[in-house]
Amino acid sequence: MPSTNSLKRIKLFEKLPPIFWVVITFELMERAAYYGMLAILPYYARYTLGIPAGRVGVITGVMMPFLYLLPIFSGALAEKFGYRRQMLFAFGFLSTVYFLIPRLTSFELLVLGYMAIGFGIGSYKPLISSTIGKATPTEERNLAFSLYYWVVNLGAAITPAIFAFTFPRSAYVYAYYVASSLLFADFVLCFFFFKDATEPDRTLTVKRSVLNIWEVVRDLKFAVLLLIIAGFWFMYAMNNVVVVLHGLEFGVLPAWFPPAGVAVFNPLTIVLAGPLLSKAVEKVDTLKAMLTGVIIYIIGICVLGFILDFYAFVIGIIVLSIGEFIVAPAFLSYISKLAPKEKMAIYMGATFLPSMVGITLGNMVGAYLFQYVAEGWHMVKFFWGIIASIGLLTLITFIVYNNTLGRRMVAYEDRHLAVEEVLKRARRPSSLESRSALTLAVLLIPVLLLGSYAMGTSTYYPPEGEKAPSQQAVEEAFRMDLSESGYTAEGEVSTFSYNI
């Protein structure tokens, strides 16, 4: 007789159409390939190929505009020509690119290779969620999307873990061949088992999609909000390259811990803690949830960056992952409340813009900042102080925005409502939005910057074959700044400190 758990699993499979299970299998394998590749990239590019940290950030950053902008066009093209054709193209193209990446060993060629990866993913990115929305019955849609997002994070955790604990560091290049194989498997599954959920909708054009985004950007009040939120995603982008290099180059990661394993902590936290966190914040006011999430993320950055210890490093990643999980859905909810009701779909369709701007700049600017401040000056704590200050600046500008432009937008939307309904919608400002909280946040920025600068330098362990800057070279980089201060330098080749 089948067990209760078996019956539940059977009922779950019966609730959702077969095409749902096909497309989340696509997503599981594609995300596993993508996040596995990201997990090994910092070590592979920096230590195997000898590419400087700033350029590694550029390699990662060039993908992002394709990942976020291309879906505007690819969604419309898929509606015009059919999902199956476009998926077959994307899977075949990505499988080929991943297979060729190990042969691209120069910075310039890797930039082209990663642009190609971004193009392939961008041409496929919106099709899975759209298929789920079309093929799943309305009453089961929440369940379907919950499973979908859980599978995305499962894919993000599983291959980094496999690569970390089965591949030696010298074999990280083979991760690209695994990624190629996963995408080839997607191609075969799509060819034999996938059919379009509905007939193509030829009324949606690429031009209409672009005009929709332009309409949102022209709304300056809304555009300012998107720019502010980009500050959070700038911080988030440190996860891609900088966090791993921080662990490797400043003695945080023990010799037994594989670099690719760093990428496991973030998705694993979301997979394990996500359901509990969702319950905890579901009744919390949207704005309060957003502000709390940003604060938690900043705390995670400080723990990770200021305490050069492996366990603090892991705790910091877990804490900032919790902050990320709270901020992302709260931002979408906040946008839905500000967007004009008659243009809700158009405005919600533009919520990718802050991620694109923040993550692109975060990867590029953040990595060069790390190369200059952390590697060049040996002041890794000052680097993280700068990143945390950007988070505080995001928090401050968001509170100011909400108390000015944000309220005007809400008031404009509520202008047609009766007084009783407006009062019902009104909310009492939380302590996080108070003037004293705003003042504290403003004062914390110079405290963070000066405090992290005063922490001085840390021991820098460069990649093998690359010499750390000498004491004299680093001192000279500071000499002009410090000549009129009371600092004195003392220490050895790659370790010295400043004492007030």
- Strand residue content: under 5%
Shape: globular
| Class inferred from helices and paired strands | mainly alpha
**What does the average pLDDT come to?**
83
Given as residue ranges, the uncertain stretches (5+ residues, pLDDT < 50) are 410-427, 484-500
Task: Give the strand line-up of the largest sheet.
Answer: 1-2
**Main sheet overview:** 2 strands, antiparallel
Molecular structure report:
It is globular, with a radius of gyration of 24 Å. By secondary structure, it is mostly helical. The chain has a two-stranded antiparallel sheet with strand order 1-2. The longest helix is centred in the C-terminal third of the chain and has 34 residues, at 380-413. Residues 410-427 and 484-500 have low confidence and may be disordered. A hairpin with a 2-residue loop joins strand 1 (488-492) and strand 2 (495-499). The protein has three domains: 12-204, MFS general substrate transporter like domains (Growth Hormone, Chain: A), CATH 1.20.1250; 210-456, MFS general substrate transporter like domains (Growth Hormone, Chain: A), CATH 1.20.1250; 469-500, no CATH class. Helices cover 74% and strands 2% of the residues.
Write the layout of secondary structure elements.
Elements: H1 4-15, H2 18-48, H3 53-61, H4 64-81, H5 83-100, H6 107-122, H7 125-135, H8 141-166, H9 175-193, H10 206-218, H11 220-236, H12 242-249, H13 262-281, H14 286-306, H15 310-338, H16 344-348, H17 352-377, H18 380-413, H19 419-425, H20 435-454, H21 471-482, E1 488-492, E2 495-499
Antiparallel strand pairs: 1-2
Helix pairs in contact: 2-7, 2-8, 2-9, 3-6, 3-17, 4-5, 4-6, 4-10, 4-17, 5-6, 5-9, 8-13, 11-17, 11-18, 13-15, 14-15, 14-18, 17-18, 18-20
